[in-house]
Each structure stands twice: as structure tokens, then as C-alpha cells.
Amino acid sequence: MQFDSKERQIRSFVLRKGKMTTGQRKAVEELLPQYAIDPVPKQLNFHTIFGNDNPVWLDIGFGNGESIIHAAQIYPDVNFLGIEVHLPGVGHLLIESEKLGLNNVKIIRNDAVDMMTKHMSNDSLDAVHVYFPDPWHKKRHHKRRIINPEFLALTTDKLKTGGRLHYASDWEPYAIEVKELLSVTNTFKNTQADGGFSDRPEWRPVTKFERRGQKLNHGSYDLIVHKI
Ligand SMILES: C[S@@+](CC[C@H](N)C(=O)[O-])C[C@H]1O[C@@H](n2cnc3c(N)ncnc32)[C@H](O)[C@@H]1O
Asked: Contacts from 37-40 at CB under 8 Å and sequence distance 24+?
């Protein structure tokens, strides 16, 4: 995984060292070649990658992969592409994917924004999921929030017409900011008539980050919109 420091300077993550368990390390060594798209080709061809033309749902910053593991089981006819930089989380997803025999999961370990910008065709994704993205609480760090007008424009380009953007957060101020950003785009239509938050749909499980937020008495805020 290499980043060109001359390009996008402001990234939505800081690479954390993070301890790997022995199992995660072993999974990365043994299973990553099977599940990872590495090297990432100039242009990602999902038909070649997944060996079928099923819809592709992209999960950005999948953490330890809980949401992919859950949805990949209940939607076997959907292809799941997870992009994450944090290696222990990648290891966790690999272990579970192997245990469950999931053959509809692929992983890229890199910056999702770079991958979308440089390697994905327009109108190629059926869904983009961004669950509990780092809220970057401090005002001086808000510029690191992954959801911003540029990201929404990029996502519009990469989604098929009718494709879904699903964001979830436990940090209310960030959720309100995203709701407002979405309300002023003319490329997305909210699934809620009032342009507000949705109930958690069946494809999104309660994740570790959400449980942590619940313990802190945070709410959960889902926004589900479709590309017009
Ligand atoms: C707070 S965690 C949430 C994890 C997971 N989505 C969940 O709901 O449990 C956010 C994750 O996004 C990853 N991340 C942030 N920006 C990213 C980017 N541009 N590309 C890939 N991963 C990113 C971080 O490494 C981190 O693991």
C-alpha cells in the first residue's frame, strides 16, 4: 500500500499501528492473496474480479468487516468490495470470510477515495456504504471527514442511476452535517419523504463502533439516498 504524498494531503484516516492477533497475522499471510485485489489494476473490472455480473456494493472503511460479513451472507447474489487501510480489521474480515466460505467478498487495502477516483469506472457501483466513519470531532480536524461535497460528487459519478449511498453515524453533529449536504445536492433523492434519517435496514448490523456509541448514550443516524 503506497500513498503519493504529493497528491491528496488531507486523508480521512491516520494509519494506526494496531496490534494484530496471531490469527489475524496468519490470515493476512495466508488468505490475503485469495481475497485481496492487489495490485489494483488501472481500471477495476468487476466482472473479471468477481466472475459474474452481480451488483457490487462498496463498503468504505469496513473496520473489522462486521457489516460485510453480515450482508454477504444474506445477499449471496451481491458482490461485496471492502476498502480499508487498518490491517488488523482486514485480518478479521479474512478469518470470518474463510470460516463462512464467502465467495462474494473482495478487499482492497488502500485509501477508498483514491481507489474510487483513479480505478473505478463511472456508473459501476450499485451501493456505497459508509458506516461510522471517523467523526473527527475537533473543529480543526473537520476537513478530514470523508463525507464532503467532493466525496458526494465522486460517489454520484461511481454509482449507477438508482444506486444507493448509505451513511450511518453515532455522532449527531456529523450526521446533521451530512443530511444538510445531501439536501442541497441535486443528484440524490432521500428515501425518506422529509429528507431525514432512516431506520436501520436489514443489511446493516449493529457494529462494534455503534455499540460503543450506545454505551456513551449516542444515537444512531442512518441516511439512505439514491442517485437520481
Ligand atoms: C470508526 S471506523 C468504522 C468501522 C466500520 N465501518 C464499522 O461501522 O464498524 C472507520 C474506519 O474507516 C477507515 N477509513 C477511514 N478513511 C478511510 C479511507 N479513506 N479509505 C479506507 N478506509 C478508511 C479507518 O481505518 C477505520 O477503520
From this structure: 37/81, 37/106, 37/107, 37/108, 38/108, 38/109, 40/108, 40/110, 40/115, 40/119
